[in-house]
Structures are given as C-alpha cells and as structure tokens.
C-alpha cells in the first residue's frame, strides 16, 4: 500500500481570527501544496483545531529544520501548539494481548500488507498462547505472567520493554488485565485500548453478557485512550452491529469480534496519521 510522500502539520489554539490563514499562508510562502485539510472550531470551548497535509515544493527544495524555525514565530503569535510529522514515517507500536487472538490477528495482517504504516518491535502477553503467531511474523514475543503478588514486578518489566522498543504507541488488543494507576499515568495519551461495548455503557468484565441481560438491539466496540478510570478514557472510535432478541451472549461475542477489529484498527490509523486531538477529557478526530 502506497503512503503519500507528504508532511502533516497539526495545531490547536484558542479560537481567533486568522488561525487558518497563519497555517495556509506560511505553506503557500514555502511553496508547499496543501493536499488535504480539516479544521474544527469548538464554539463552546473556544478552541480551534487544524490538520493540514501538504506536499514539498515542486523543485524538491525542502529543509525541515528551516521550515520549523520559520513557522515558529508565526505560531507563537497565535500561541499555537503544533507538530510536524512526515506521513511516511512508521512509528514503533508495542502490542499487549492475552488469549483472544482476533484483534492481534487483524493488526498483524494490516501490518504485513502495509495497511497500517507501523513497526511492531514487541508483543507482550500474560499468556504463552499466541507465541507461534508472533514467531510466524518474526516479532519478539514476551511472555510475562502476572498475579496479584507479581503485578508490580511484571509491569516494571513491561515498561522496560516498551522503552527498549522505543515505542511511540502502546495498543491493548484485548489485554485482559487492569493496568495499575502508575502505568496508566505513564501511558496516558499514547496507549489505546479496545473495549467490547459501546462505552460509557457496559464497562468492566463480560460486557456482552451485560448487554444480553438488558436486551440491547445494538452491540459495539470502543477504542479509547487509557487513563486511571476503568474504561473511562477519551474515546477515539466506536463501531456498532445490530442484534435482536434471538442473540444469546455467545452470539453477541461472535458478532462483536469483527467490530472490535475494525474499530481498533481505525483508532490506530487515526492516531498515527495525527488526526486525534485530546482536549477537555475527550477527543477531536479530524477523520477523512
């Protein structure tokens, strides 16, 4: 899958006149063609968000350091919080998993075929079951068993692996352990979890069984950033699947698997493409 040879400029600041112009005018002055752009102005919060994807000048002359230095004073006038990212750059992603393999399988397929522009330097699990799957993809697999007594030690080792892997994103692909508040604090803003319900409904364990007990007519999945509150982190994406009275809990589980995979993959895609802004405990997602 071809990834555009472009750069992505993202920025946010207080709502004020000229916020779009300060970005687009500078790109024009540098000879950079804007290939794609989304903006959002939160009228209630008074906050502006912009994502501009642009091509380098046609003559090929582009100095990223000079570009950053030149844009900095313009950004300072508007108190912009901004980032510049090369679209083709593949961030390191560490995946946490337990025994359920459907989300991991899906992510590895998208990784192998280039649908997800990432590198996976490590897979960490509290069970040995998915070792062969990781081996087949030539990805290091770390089996770190955990009990109540060894949780702190296990998480310390996990944190070491994440750092040694130079991970920029951690993905909990049905990792069925509640992370400690200390690890949640370390991973805040750069760890994505997939929960198998439409949050904020049916938090915690066995959400499909909870949904069955309530007779719901839709089941779904939620990909969110983690925080110190169980299943309460800022939501990135959600997916749904219609069901009815004839679906027993096992049927809901089966129906939900595909939704979980697609929802998680989409959240990762949005994250690595710099489409997600966290603000006031929730997200702004400038999707395509």
UniProtKB/TrEMBL annotation:
<dbReference type="InterPro" id="IPR036477">
    <property type="entry name" value="Formyl_transf_N_sf"/>
</dbReference>
<keyword id="KW-0554">One-carbon metabolism</keyword>
<dbReference type="InterPro" id="IPR004810">
    <property type="entry name" value="PurU"/>
</dbReference>
<dbReference type="InterPro" id="IPR041729">
    <property type="entry name" value="Formyl-FH4-Hydrolase_C"/>
</dbReference>
<dbReference type="InterPro" id="IPR045865">
    <property type="entry name" value="ACT-like_dom_sf"/>
</dbReference>
<comment type="similarity">
    <text>Belongs to the PurU family.</text>
</comment>
<dbReference type="GO" id="GO:0008864">
    <property type="term" value="F:formyltetrahydrofolate deformylase activity"/>
</dbReference>
<dbReference type="GO" id="GO:0006189">
    <property type="term" value="P:'de novo' IMP biosynthetic process"/>
</dbReference>
<feature type="active site">
    <location>
        <position position="231"/>
    </location>
</feature>
<comment type="function">
    <text>Catalyzes the hydrolysis of 10-formyltetrahydrofolate (formyl-FH4) to formate and tetrahydrofolate (FH4).</text>
</comment>
<dbReference type="GO" id="GO:0006730">
    <property type="term" value="P:one-carbon metabolic process"/>
</dbReference>
<dbReference type="InterPro" id="IPR002376">
    <property type="entry name" value="Formyl_transf_N"/>
</dbReference>
<dbReference type="Pfam" id="PF00551">
    <property type="entry name" value="Formyl_trans_N"/>
</dbReference>
<dbReference type="InterPro" id="IPR044074">
    <property type="entry name" value="PurU_ACT"/>
</dbReference>
<keyword id="KW-0378">Hydrolase</keyword>
<protein>
    <recommendedName>
        <fullName>Formyltetrahydrofolate deformylase</fullName>
        <ecNumber>3.5.1.10</ecNumber>
    </recommendedName>
</protein>
<comment type="pathway">
    <text>Purine metabolism; IMP biosynthesis via de novo pathway; formate from 10-formyl-5,6,7,8-tetrahydrofolate: step 1/1.</text>
</comment>
<feature type="domain" description="Formyl transferase N-terminal">
    <location>
        <begin position="92"/>
        <end position="267"/>
    </location>
</feature>
<keyword id="KW-0658">Purine biosynthesis</keyword>
């Amino acid at each position: 899958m071809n990834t555009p040879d472009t750069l992505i400029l993202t920025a946010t600041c207080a709502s004020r006149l000229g916020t779009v112009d300060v970005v687009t005018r500078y790109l024009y002055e540098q000879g950079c063609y804007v290939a794609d752009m989304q903006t959002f102005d939160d009228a209630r919060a008074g906050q502006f968000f912009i994502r501009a994807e642009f091509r380098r000048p046609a003559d090929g002359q582009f100095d990223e350091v000079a570009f950053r230095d030149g844009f900095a004073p313009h950004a300072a006038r508007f108190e912009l919080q901004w980032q510049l990212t090369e679209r083709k750059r593949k961030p390191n992603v560490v995946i946490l998993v337990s025994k359920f393999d459907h989300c991991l399988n899906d992510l590895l397929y998208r990784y192998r075929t280039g649908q997800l522009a990432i590198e996976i330097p490590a897979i960490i699990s509290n069970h040995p079951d998915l070792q062969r799957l990781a081996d087949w993809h030539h990805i290091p697999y770390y089996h770190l068993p955990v009990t109540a007594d060894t949780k702190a030690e296990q998480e310390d080792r996990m944190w070491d692996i994440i750092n040694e892997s130079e991970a920029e994103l951690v993905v909990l692909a049905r990792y069925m352990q509640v992370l400690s508040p200390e690890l949640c604090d370390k991973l805040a803003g750069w760890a994505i979890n997939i929960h198998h319900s439409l949050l904020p409904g049916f938090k915690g364990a066995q959400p499909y069984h909870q949904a069955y007990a309530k007779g719901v007519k839709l089941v779904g999945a939620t990909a969110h950033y983690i925080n110190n509150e169980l299943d309460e982190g800022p939501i990135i994406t959600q997916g749904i699947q219609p069901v009815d009275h004839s679906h027993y809990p096992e049927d809901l589980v089966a129906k939900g698997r595909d939704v979980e995979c697609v929802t998680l993959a989409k959240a990762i895609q949005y994250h690595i493409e710099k489409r997600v802004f966290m603000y006031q405990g929730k997200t702004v997602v400038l999707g395509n």
